[in-house]
Amino acid sequence: MLLNLDDYRRAARRQLPRVIFDFIDGGADAEDCVRRNIEDLGKVTLLPRQLRDVSSVDTSVSLFGHSWKSPVALAPTGFNGLLRPGADIVLARAADQMGTPFILSTASNVPLEQIARQANGIRWLQLYIMGGRRIAEQLIRRARNLDYSALVLTVDVAVGGHRERDVRNGMTMPFKPSLRTMLDFGLHPSWALRFMGKGPPKFANLEDPDQGSHSAELAVALGNRQMDRSMAWDNLAWLREHWDGPLLLKGILHPDDARRAVGEGVDGLIVSNHGGRQLDVVPSTIQALPGVLDAVAKAIPVLVDGGFRRGGDIAKALAMGAKAVLVGRPALWGLAVAGEAGVRNVLETFNEELSRTMALLGATQVEELSANYLNNIQK
Ligand code: FNR
User: Whole-prediction pTM value?
Assistant: First the structure.
């Protein structure tokens, strides 16, 4: 029975070849940060308010000019095509049906035009600056013409985190399956059959780049992991010349960086440690969140991601002052287990749990979730 997100994780583990499951599940180095995200969320507790009329609970929020069904968005995840061909289209469609924003990764192997053609709803583009700024400028121009409504610049990937599971599994770029991996693929026919007639899954489709990435040049940059390490605060002005819509920074943890972002005119922040996939020594995001919120002093919306697995977790972040939460791995588990319906179910599970949590806390609107609910004794 798929009652909760942990059930989905276990089911995804059974469905997927080990190299693919580990690629999604894993984190950097000792994976301390992956664990910390979840453990620290478990330590936060909330105090309910009783005898309030909660006959109708509304989880919707309004952010960056759109109404969301609940304070949840799909986090950008790259290389989703490893799960099934056209994975990003499936994710975007499921998100649309659930009134949930979808954030398309720069490392997608479905071009942004195709997503725009096949899915409506709230679409954002996540940006990595790779292989030269001109590639980013072209991506941004395309996103603007296709009505992607916000740009998320990910700032915690100057270099790729060292994911030891991937190294051990031979999950390198370009992907070179070993005999053991091929055997593992054979043992997961429901996954393998999805690629029938489409060729094996690829990190970035170097053989036929136009079909496998946002652009041929980007596919090459992704294949070579050509991240622009010189990207710095001064370059935000360059980004602004090309994008006048909402600009969010994803991967902010330090209060001083948060303050600087506000000063630079950024429109929103995503407190993130990349789901523990980059720098292993950082705090959990729920621990870093209060410092960032203090620094921002309500000037711009602050979102958070990393380890959110229950609707109750979302209520905790919102009570602290976050405006919404992004979920990464859970959506991929839903996708692996049951495609579009699986992603919808995962989002439905989050929404139902949040709605029930709010009713039990005595809150009928998301805006009511405030510091008043925080159980400070637990600090
Ligand atoms: C990611 N993440 C990510 N972030 C980003 O900005 N661009 C990207 O391309 C990716 N790719 C990616 C792939 C996979 C498989 C995962 C699991 C994660 C990070 C992602 O946006 C988000 O920060 C975390 O996934 C949040 O943590 P949880 O919800 O997965 O615990």
Answer: 0.97
